[in-house]
Amino acid sequence: MDLKNLHERRHPILIAASLIRYSIAINHQDILAAEDIINSLEKVTTVNDSTVVSLRAKQAIYEFETNSKTIEETYDLVEASCQLIDNALLSESLKLKMIESITSYDLVRSSNLFSQLIPPDRFARTKTSLRYCARWWLLHAKFNPESEKSSIKESIARFRESGCHNAAKQLESQLHSLI
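-> structure tokens emitted (179 positions)
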């Protein structure tokens, strides 16, 4: 990509391209490349920029999932990051991602953290908030077995509404196995 002639739109495009590159690096489990991308972003934004803070938190969650960080380290970093992010939906999505990651390791802590999340109906209906809602209902199903089927149905509906049809299909299969 040649960004030299895009003057006023260069910054947002550079950030968007960096986010894509970061996702690809994490998908390829290349933590060094991911770190380089974050460091490059810090040079064009700030250390406390929401995008940089969010990526640092996501990286901590990834490192927990690959056994490079403890639950405590991950929790502390995500909590500190969320304090710096002024977008409530982004902050809550990071917390939700962390809870999704630690649930199989510490169900009690996960359940407690889940109960502290902002319910999804408090956000304006956007594709992003609908995906948050779908993921929220999916965790709700894990922590509330008495309403597991209805929670999964709600999650399926929100995934469909947000355009995540593959996720909806996978959950439908899971739901059919429960019936």
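The longest helix spans residues 10-27.
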